[in-house]
Amino acid sequence: QVQLVESGGGLVQAGGSLRLSCAGSGRTFSTYAMGWFRQAPGKAREVVARISASGSSYLVDSVKGRFTISRDNAKNTVYLQMNSLKPEDTAVYYCNAKLWSMDYWGQGTQVTVSA
């Protein structure tokens, strides 16, 4: 089982930057595909970025050129670097770990971008 703890959220002005971290437990962290999702008020949860166990990454179109996902398996941590933030990026951001049928979520961290 994997436990995930997000950190790094907060309040930032439009155009600013934040780096989210997701620390995972367990010796098999490196085998999991990791992802960041977000959920804005009144909206469904959506994928923001994913990174495979081998390091291949995917970013949703709305964040390409602004966000970067990376992982440090030695630290059991995945990161989401968010630059040029926009008010529409405001949401609770969740970390996800997935391997076959196993699917784990963190508790979420709030990101608020003011205009």
Main sheet record? 7 strands, mixed
The secondary-structure class comes to: mainly beta
The low-confidence runs, each spanning 5 or more residues with pLDDT under 50, are none
Radius of gyration, taken over Cα atoms and rounded to an integer in Å: 13 Å
Number of strands: 11
H and E order: EEEEEEEEEEE
Query: What is the end-to-end distance?
Result: 40 Å
Shape: globular
Number of helices in the DSSP assignment? 0
How big a fraction of the residues is strand? over 45%
Helix content: under 10%
On the 0 to 100 scale, the average pLDDT is 96
Q: Can you tell me about this structure?
A:
The protein is mainly β and 115 residues long. Helices cover 0% and strands 54% of the residues. The protein contains no helices and eleven strands. The strands form two sheets. Strands 2, 4, 5, 6, 9, 10 and 11 form a seven-stranded mixed β-sheet that branches. Strand 7 (67-72) and strand 8 form a beta hairpin. It starts with a strand and ends with a strand. 32% of the residues are buried. The model has no long low-confidence stretch (mean pLDDT 96).
